[in-house]
From TrEMBL:
A Pfam family it matches: AAA_5
Family annotation (CDD domains): AAA
GO MF annotations in UniProt: ATP binding; ATP hydrolysis activity
Protein name from the UniProt record: AAA family ATPase
Origin: domain of life: Bacteria
Organism of this sequence: Baileyella intestinalis
Coiled coil region boundaries: none
Residue stretches making up the AAA+ ATPase domain: 32-187
Amino acid sequence: MNIEQAKNQVKYTVISYLSKDEFGEYIVPVERQRPLFLVGPPGIGKTDIMSQVAREMGIGLVSYSMTHHTRQSALGLPFIHEKEYGGQEYRTTEYTMSEIIASVYDTMEDTGIKEGILFLDEINCISETLAPSMLQFLQYKVFGRHKVPEGWVVVTAGNPPEYNDSVREMDIVTLDRLKRIDVEPDLAVWQKYAQNEGVNSAVLSYLQIKKDDFYSVQTTVDGKLFVTARGWVDLAGIIDLYEKNHLPVDIDLISQYIQDQRIARDFAAYYDLFYKFRQEYDVTDILNGTWDPDVAAKAGEAAFDERITIIRMLSDGLISDFRKINEEDEVIGQLVEIIKGDRDRLARGGCAQAVTLLDQRREEMRSQVQRESRAHSISRGQKRVSLAVISALSEIGGLLSSGATTGRDDPVSVIRGYMGGRNGKKEELVKNGSARLENAFGFLEKAYGDDNEMLVFVTTLTENKYSSRFIGKYGSDGYFRHNKEVLFYDREKDLQERIGQLEK
């Protein structure tokens, strides 16, 4: 199965194991909770989906790689303990708490979250000394004499032996205590994830053209040549930073992440072309509706890779707009909830009291963000929104302090004025976003009419969570003119077939 399907299986398993009866007891006893075992090639996102599940469910996450653990670090260190049996004193061996289990308790103490996922990666690479203890752990969730706390679901992962020389073949007795899921790389699933995460346009465009270069592992006379989904994501991130700081993106940089020289050279050549297209087709002019008719004519006559790049540049420009609007929507929504919750207290007191109250809310929110960050239960986007809300509360506090010193001691009026201004700016963003979207459709209609390129563009907007959310909320005449065909067939499979016709 692909990584998205694997994520769903993880989520469904966690939901099931955390289900309780009418007395508040977990329905599935610990010893019947088979840990999941995700098996797949490196760099396809096995670790990432754990964070996603934890965030979506609001539970904690503790991750460990088992490759560096010895028997002592996993089970704990022995020490002598005196006990009395039948009136006789005996010296017995006890164990300190396992480092792994202690980390679970630390997370619970730090975050206040009592349920979560204990993710053990590279489980099939454990040391010989630790292997005998794994049966007991997989069945009873015990390392040494200490149990994994109730409410924490164990998920494991590992690579097949062809990808990792350290892999130990698991016997049937061990495998019979696991829920095995085999995961394979899937470009279509990764593209949806990458688009929503804002992965660099050059990488997305290249892989839309060169699909076979998405994932590759080969053993040659020159050694192992490989490229993974993780490599593409990390490369995209560093390209963003290099471009921001006006640093050269060249084969030397690309080869550090794409460790297959043929693919690295091909992408380097494409990146140069992408940069050239970005200069020739001014996305800002197109989205602002000030494009030259000659540019549309040039786009209409372009080769396949150039057309795909144009569509990608336009969609990325729009999605960036929609991401900002979505973020502002969420910030305003959270501010409204905070103000509503404190409406009576804000109305009764003056500006000075309101400042104290909002300062308190700001510190509570900052502490919550810190707890969620430690628990890995907050995404980068959610954290950005929370930090923006904290910043807005500071801005309101500054206005209230000014009101208190100037005699305008009316906190409700001050807050209403701030929120009115913020809503006005958001409405302007929405207006501009709608206009830029229609301008993009106008350009593409001029260049390609209702042909396959339009299908690619509409499909990209449909699959991206920010653009689909914007269109669903604010509408788009251009989108509704061209989206009907997408509704009648499996988008990815048929889309590939139709795009392939462009190359002929």
